[in-house]
Design a protein that fits this description.
308 residues, alpha+beta, Pnp Oxidase, Chain A, seven-stranded antiparallel sheet, 7 helices, 17% helix
C-alpha cells in the first residue's frame, strides 16, 4: 500500500504549498511500484538511448545520455535492468556508475510514453546493472513527437569542450530547444532523471551565459524534481541537438521561483526554476541517430517572448 512516506520531505513540502497532497497520493498509489512491471521491460527494450542522472566525484549532479541501439537496455527480471553501454570517455558520469544511486529516464517520442526507474547501479562485465527500487510512468503531456531518421556518421573523433558558462552556438542550442532533461537528487534516496518540454524559446539564458530560467508547467503533481531541489539545489541539465547528435550538459545550483509577479510573465507557468551554472560539457556525436520532429505538442503554452 502506498502511504504518505512514499514521498520524502521535499516532495511533501511542495505538494503542501501547491495544495495537491491528496492528488499526489492517488497518483502515486496507481503508478509507483518497487519492481519493474513487465510492460516497462518491453518498453525499455525498444529504446535507442536513455538518460541517466547521477553525481560525479565532486558531488555535482549531471544528466547524461547513454546510447546503445535498440535492445541495449533490457530487464533481467522484475528488479534488475542491464544497460549494455557505457558513458563515453570524458562524460561527467563516466567514473560514477561503479556503485551509485542513479535515476534512469526512457522516452518513446513516437508514442509520447515515458518511464522512470530509480535505484542502485553496479558495473559488471556485461554492462551497468540497475537494481530498481522505484518504477513509475509519467503522462504524455507536452512531449514532442519525434522519429529517428538515420544514423549520424561523424567526420572524425567527437570533440569535447568544457567550460563554466554558455557561449555562442551553445546559447543557440538552448534557445531553440523544445525538450531538455533534468537530473536532481535527494541525500538518502539518490538521483532522479526527468525532462521538460515547451515551445522553442521556453528556456531563457542570461546575457553572460551563466544562468538560465525555465517555466514549470502543470504535471503529475508528485513533484519529484522540485521536491529534490527543495532539499538539495544541485541540478544537471542535458540539451540534445537532434540534428547533429551534440549533447550540451550543464550542472549548477537551482532556485525555485514562487513570486507571482515574476511567474506571471510566463504564460502557463505555475513557478519558475533558475539555474546558476557551475560547469558545462559539450560533446559532439553523443547520440548516434538523427531525430526529426513530426508533431509538436499542442499543449505547450506560448513562450514569454511570444506573448510579449
Amino acid at each position: 500500500m502506498i502511504t504518505k512516506q512514499m514521498f520524502h520531505e521535499g516532495e511533501r513540502e511542495v505538494q503542501r504549498r501547491v495544495g495537491v497532497e491528496r492528488v499526489a497520493s492517488q497518483v502515486a498509489r496507481h503508478n509507483i511500484t518497487p519492481w519493474i512491471p513487465p510492460e516497462f521491460g518491453q518498453f525499455l527494450a525498444r529504446q535507442r538511448f536513455v538518460v541517466i542522472a547521477g553525481a560525479d566525484g565532486d558531488q555535482r549532479v549531471w544528466a547524461s545520455p547513454l546510447a546503445g541501439g535498440v535492445g541495449f537496455a533490457r530487464a533481467l527480471d522484475d528488479h534488475r535492468v542491464i544497460l549494455a553501454a557505457d558513458p563515453p570517455a570524458g562524460d561527467p558520469l563516466e567514473a560514477a556508475l561503479g556503485h551509485a544511486r542513479i535515476g534512469l529516464l526512457a522516452i518513446e517520442f513516437a508514442t509520447r510514453l515515458r518511464i522512470r526507474l530509480n535505484g542502485v547501479a553496479e558495473r559488471t562485465p556485461e554492462g551497468i546493472v540497475l537494481t530498481v527500487e522505484e518504477a513509475f510512468g509519467n503522462c504524455p503531456k507536452f512531449i514532442q513527437r519525434r522519429l529517428p531518421t538515420g544514423r549520424l556518421e561523424p567526420a572524425g573523433g567527437p570533440r569535447h569542450k568544457v567550460g563554466n558558462a554558455l557561449h555562442g552556438h551553445q546559447v543557440r542550442i538552448v534557445a531553440r530547444a523544445d525538450t531538455f532533461f533534468i537530473a536532481s537528487a535527494h541525500p538518502e534516496r539518490g538521483a532522479d532523471a526527468s525532462h521538460r518540454d515547451g515551445r522553442p524559446g521556453f528556456v531563457e539564458v542570461s546575457a553572460d551565459g551563466r544562468e538560465l530560467v525555465f517555466p514549470d508547467y502543470p504535471g503529475n503533481r508528485m513533484f519529484q524534481t522540485l521536491g529534490n531541489l527543495t532539499v538539495d539545489p544541485r541540478a544537471g541539465l542535458l540539451f540534445l541537438d537532434w540534428e547533429t547528435g551534440t549533447a550540451l550538459q550543464l550542472t549548477g545550483g537551482a532556485e525555485i521561483v514562487w513570486d507571482e509577479g515574476e511567474v506571471g510573465a510566463w504564460p502557463g507557468a505555475e513557478r519558475l526554476v533558475r539555474i546558476v551554472i557551475d560547469a558545462v560539457h559539450e560533446r559532439e556525436h553523443a547520440i548516434p541517430t538523427r531525430w526529426n520532429l513530426i508533431e509538436p505538442s499542442r499543449l505547450s503554452p506560448p513562450t514569454k517572448s511570444e506573448r510579449a
